[in-house]
Structures are given as structure tokens and as C-alpha cells.
Specification:
The chain is α/β, with parallel strands linked by helices. The protein is built from seven helices and ten strands. The chain has two domains: about 170 residues, P-loop containing nucleotide triphosphate hydrolases (Rossmann fold, 3-Layer(aba) Sandwich); about 70 residues, no CATH class.
Length: about 260
């Protein structure tokens, strides 16, 4: 099991000085992600998306409320929750193979087991033949594939992704969305990780998600919890896909109108 529950979560940051007012980043946020679901958290910049993800990872704690995985409160960061960052966070002095191997070595796995896991995940993300390349020899999209392979290789219960494709150009971003969609479409549902994606891209959320959580502008509250019941791989030209995009866009646009 890898259910994730966010219950009545509030996050307040103190002011930088005694004269500064505290900042209410998130206010009473609640939602539930089922086993093996792909859930996107969507909203305007500054709505608390990344703050929510950092608390899911255990890098920060809520000011109030709780976040639980399989009924247990999230504490310090562990292998059970892997994070893919926007800036890749690869070790530049390590090859593709060694970057993926790093977490496995830290877990103390035997060499033969590590090598099999590395081989399988390199194949999974389509990087066969690039095992001995260094990050500076890879494109942005390839670097992010290494990051995803490294995060998956340690066999987490939950994979957390913080706008992992935002730094890519439009062509590579579309390619990575297509590749991630392919992985989701071709993987056995029972073997799929529970995945949480923070994004500001409506297209990305609809292409990839089983569930979309739309947050209001700051302080972030749950504006909508949308179930995406579309077959994979997603047909971006289908009336159902276009209608769902319009629904999500209208929810986001409403927040823009409120701000004005």
C-alpha cells in the first residue's frame, strides 16, 4: 500500500523580522491519493504547491494538520519517498550508471542486485547506450530521465516531482510528457508507484494524471479535486480531453479574476 493523505494542513512562515507579518502559505488543505495513482497539484505561482511537496517529502513540517503515508505520519526524509527536482540534482562527476547506483549503494544492496536494478531502470527511461556518459554530455531531457531513473531505482512507495520538466524547452518538455505518459500506459498498475507532480501546466496535468488537485491563490486551499477518467495513452485531440482542459483552465482563470 502507498496511500497518501493530506488532512487539514496549514503552513505559516514567520516574518523575516519582528515587524513583518507571518505568511500563510497553505490553509486547511485536505485530499487523499489512492495507491498507484498519479496526482498533479496545479495552481498559480506562489500558491503553495512546492511547499506542500516539501512537506510530503519530510523536508518541512506542517504548522497544523498532518500528512500520512499508509496511515503513518510523514517524518524525516526516507527512501520511501523519492523526489525529482526541477534542476536534475545529478552528481556531475558521476556517470549515468553511477548516479543511478548512488542510492542503491547507500541502501547497502549487493553489487549483482544493484547492477540488475540499474540495467532495468536505464532501459525503462530509454537511456540504453548512455550508461558511461556524464551529465554535461547529456541533453536536458536526458538528464531528467536519469533523475527519474535514480528516484525510481530505490523502490520508493511515493515518487514526488517538483515541476521536473519546467526547465526544458517546449520540444523536450513535450517529449518528456509523452515518455512519462508511455511509462504510465505500459506499466502494470500494481507495480506503478504512487506519484505526486507539482506543476503549473494544465496540459501536463491532464496528459499524466489520474487526479488533479487545483489550489487557489495564496493562501493555497483546495479549489477542486478532479478525477481524470480518460484512457491511456491520452488522445489530446479527443473532445473529452479538450473539455477537461477547458474545465481546469476555467478553474485557474477564476483565480486570476479573483486576484484582479
Amino acid at each position: 500500500m502507498s496511500q497518501l493523505t493530506v488532512e487539514d494542513v496549514t503552513k505559516i512562515y514567520p516574518g523575516h523580522s519582528a515587524s513583518d507579518e507571518p505568511v500563510l502559505a497553505l490553509d486547511d488543505v485536505s485530499f487523499h491519493v489512492e495507491d498507484h495513482e498519479f496526482c498533479s497539484v496545479l495552481g498559480h505561482s506562489g500558491c503553495g504547491k512546492t511547499t506542500l511537496l516539501t512537506m510530503m517529502a519530510g523536508f518541512e513540517q506542517p504548522s497544523a494538520g498532518s500528512i500520512r503515508v499508509d496511515g503513518k505520519p510523514v517524518g524525516k526524509p526516507t527512501w520511501q519517498r523519492s523526489v525529482v527536482f526541477q534542476d536534475y540534482a545529478l552528481f556531475p562527476w558521476m556517470t549515468v550508471h553511477d548516479n543511478i547506483s548512488f542510492g542503491l549503494e547507500m541502501k547497502g544492496l549487493a553489487v549483482a542486485e544493484r547492477e540488475e536494478i540499474i540495467r532495468r531502470h536505464i532501459e525503462l527511461v530509454g537511456l540504453g547506450g548512455f550508461e558511461k556518459r556524464y551529465p554535461h554530455q547529456l541533453s536536458g531531457g536526458m538528464k531528467q530521465r536519469v533523475s527519474i531513473a535514480r528516484a525510481l531505482a530505490v523502490d520508493p512507495k511515493v515518487l514526488l516531482m517538483d515541476e521536473p520538466f519546467a526547465a526544458l524547452d517546449a520540444q523536450n518538455r513535450a517529449l518528456m510528457q509523452e515518455e512519462m505518459g508511455r511509462l504510465l500506459a505500459n506499466s502494470d498498475i500494481e507495480q506503478r508507484k504512487t506519484m505526486i507532480l507539482v506543476t503549473h501546466s494544465i496540459d501536463e496535468a491532464v496528459i499524466l494524471s489520474d487526479r488533479i488537485i487545483v489550489l487557489t491563490r495564496r493562501p493555497g486551499r483546495v479549489k477542486a479535486n478532479v478525477i481524470v477518467d480518460l484512457p491511456r495513452p491520452r488522445d489530446e485531440e479527443s473532445p473529452e480531453f479538450i473539455a477537461l482542459k477547458r474545465q481546469i483552465r476555467d478553474l485557474i482563470h477564476d483565480e486570476f479574476e479573483v486576484e484582479r
